Amino acid sequence: MPEYMPSKKIKEVVGLVEKSEWILPTFQRKYVWDQEQICDLFDSIMRGYPISTFMIWKVEKKTAANNTFYKFLTDYQEWWREIGEQFTPKTLDYYYAVIDGQQRINSLYIGYCGSYATKLPRVHWKKAYDESIQPKTYLYLNLVEDADENTSRLYDFRFFSDKDFQEISNRSFWYRVGDILKLPYIEHDDIDDRLPDEFEGTSIFNDFSNEQKRTALKKLKMLYKKTFHTPIINYYQEDNQNLERVVDVFVRANGGGTPLEFSDLVMSVTVRQWPEAKDKIEELIKLIYAETGIALSKDFVLKVFLTFFSKDISFQIKYFEDENLKLVNKAKAEFDKIHNIILGSCKFINQIGLNNDTLRSKYALIPLVYFSYKNNFDIGNVAKGRDNHKLMDIWIKSALLKGMFGGKPDAVLQKIKGMIDSTTGVFPTQDIFEAFKNTTRDIRIDEDFIRDKIEKAHYGSIDSYLLLTLATKLDPQQHYHVDHMYPKDMFKKQTLKSFAFLNNDKELLSFYDNKNNWNTVGNLQLLNASENTSKNKSRLSVWTAKPIPYKLSDYFVPMDNNSQYIVADNMFKEFVSMRKELLVKAILNNLNI
Fold first, then answer.
1. Higher pLDDT, 203 or 374
2. Angstrom distance (rounded) from CA 122 to CA 131
3. Which of 92, 149, 280, 420 has a CA between 20 and 30 Å from the CA of residue 205?
4. Residues 270 and 411 in one domain
């Protein structure tokens, strides 16, 4: 059983991480902590709070040579660098793999030795890491002032980029945490006398009053002691070299006996047979995000492997081990084809008006990917195979609207896989509808369902967007936004008071004032970027008077008995009532297969 070991000091552990004597096994997850969590961790250390116990696997040289490991992450870059470099242990007799405590150890390492880069708000992602939109930030401690009372912290730790640091007015108060490691080792009993001498001749206290200097020295002494002297890292050590036992220890340590992420364990088994797998999957995920904005995960790619090459598509380690060599060899041999199909599927998702947000379950993509693989279907080319593209469009939007992949979707995927295996060349949308009829996964969409959704789906919801994509003729080359036909500014109370036609009609005023009437699908429409810019906040009557390249019927603008479009401010009630009927008819027509 794991043995409890003597505690280590932070300086010692940081050194072991830096020398890659402490490493990570492949089944560990990517780094996921945010800056606030790191600051909380450092605050806990300064205050003497426990930071929980760690679990370490002592890996012998022979075991290390037969498995793949990773270094800890030094410079975190959101999306682009969330795991450390792959590492092959060679020289030492023993290495130590962290199987419980990765996030905490990596946070310490980043705080002392690395940087943390996240995307600035209101800027768009680039196709590769760009420091101008994801500047590196470093951890600082405020030597003079305590943390804001609105936080749970006592010590004020924050991350600053070099640019932001230069712009703060009290930057002399702030000390970069990593600089403490540059100081020489001082015996514990000598710290009070010798540590102040280390700062003599520096500019660190130049602008401080005597009181501020005393406060700063007190915090620096605390940081120094916690870094160099206090044995904070408490851990158990597992010496057994059997990977399955170590995996079991990992699962139990993380989930009280309940597996958390079988895909992490499946990945560890895969990498043993195919060392480049993790990097190739990461590269694929980044490429797809850069080109389509669809954020997939390694879980998704591994599930694709299982769907393609395994009888059982669930993440079951025992079964996966039995079939591992055959499965991994097939995935490795056909990875380029799989890569292209997944990328093509994500491009198709964009072309039918969906995006990362509306694709509420990424697993809904897998039947499209599997069909394309089995039938050599070029899913990314909407100019070819239009019948299949329509069937796929109807199926995936129906599945997303009805939440088919909520909960545990393995049984659903297994059943759909069987139907795809039984068909040749035609995506089995109708067969899927029939197979799940009258079950909890029933995805048939009838008129009553559409009417209910149109009444309830509000602006900004995924349902409203999905309904509008089902109704609207979309140009696959365009990106669409949802906008109000009668602008929402028109329904502000002050504006409504200005309408003479509402002055003596309380019932009509109540209708206009009701958000469920003007902020749901009956008053919403998909517009491309140029249309959206053209319309802006214009009243519908003003916008439709402009020359526009489409028929107003394309926007489901209803007509009165004289074949005149209903767009006037005082006709909103008639507009929204009649427009709902047009939307219902369009959706039912487009769902007709």
1. 374
2. 15
3. 149
4. yes
> Nearest to residue 56, comparing CAs of 98, 101, 95, 16?
98
281 lies in the same domain as 179: no
Q: Which domain holds residue 156?
A: 3-234
340 falls within a domain: yes
Question: What integer pLDDT is reported at residue 14 of this predicted model?
Answer: 97
* Integer-rounded Cα radius of gyration of the chain: 30
189 CB neighbour count, 10 Å cutoff: 8
Residue type, 151: T
Question: Based on the domain organization, do 32 and 129 belong to the same domain?
Answer: yes
Number of domains in the chain: 3
Among 403, 492, 507, 481, smallest CA distance to 445 is for: 403
Beta bridge partners of 97: 23, 57
One-letter amino acid at 162 equals: D
Query: CA-to-CA distance for 519 and 511, rounded, in angstroms?
Result: 12
- Inter-residue long-range contacts of 220-224, CB under 8 Å, 24+ positions, other chains counted: 220/143, 220/175, 220/180, 220/195, 221/191, 221/192, 221/195, 222/46, 223/46, 223/141, 223/175, 223/177, 223/180, 224/180, 224/183, 224/186, 224/191, 224/195
Answer whether residue 239 is part of any domain.
no
Mean pLDDT of 372-380: 94
Cα-based distances in Å from 268 to 99, 234, 281: 13, 26, 13
DSSP secondary structure code for residue 72 in this structure: P
187 and 120, same structural domain? yes
Shared-domain flag, residues 405 and 456: no
> How far apart are alpha carbons 462 and 470 in whole angstroms?
12
Q: Are residues 291 and 171 in the same domain?
A: no
pLDDT of residue 473: 87
Distance between CA atoms of residues 540 and 543, nearest Å: 5
Q: Please state the rounded mean pLDDT for residues 134-158.
A: 93
Q: Is residue 289 part of a domain?
A: yes
pLDDT, one tens digit per residue, over 240-268 is 887 767 766 766 666 543 344 556 666 76
Judge contact between 572 and 578, C-beta under 8 A: no
- Token pair of 202, please? 């520096």
Query: Residue 439: inside a domain, yes or no?
Result: no
Indicate the average pLDDT of the chain.
89
Question: Distance between CA atoms of 72 and 177, rounded to whole angstroms?
Answer: 19
Encoding tokens for residue 468? Answer: 């509008």
Q: Determine which helix (DSSP H) or strand (DSSP E) holds 398, and give its type and residue range.
A: helix 386-401
**Could you tell me the pTM of the whole model?**
0.67
